[in-house]
Amino acid sequence: MKGAFAVLEKLALLLAIAGGINWGLVGLLQVDLVDLYLGGAATAAGRAAYILAAMGGIGCLPLLFRNPRNRE
Fold it and tell me: What is the pTM for the complete model shown?
């Protein structure tokens, strides 16, 4: 079961990184990749992308509280 959680944590981290890159591009260059490629929040695909990025960020919350000495 620990392996499944590791995969989910990596997926959450990947989604959070993708969301962070997108927001960084919005802030620096005013380029929203979700809007550009998926139609932004006005489309189902765009909403799904934003929701997945949010879920990735929420999924990374346990990483803040993990004791680094208790690695598997």
Answer: 0.82
Q: Is residue 3 part of a domain?
A: no
Q: What tokens does 56 get?
A: 């990735």
**Domain boundaries, position 34:** 9-65
pLDDT tens-digit series, residues 21-66: 999 999 999 999 999 999 988 999 999 999 999 999 999 998 888 8
The dihedral sign for the CA sequence 39, 36, 45, 12: negative
Question: C-alpha angle 67/24/55, rounded to 5°?
Answer: 50
d(CA 4, CA 59) in angstroms, rounded, equals 13
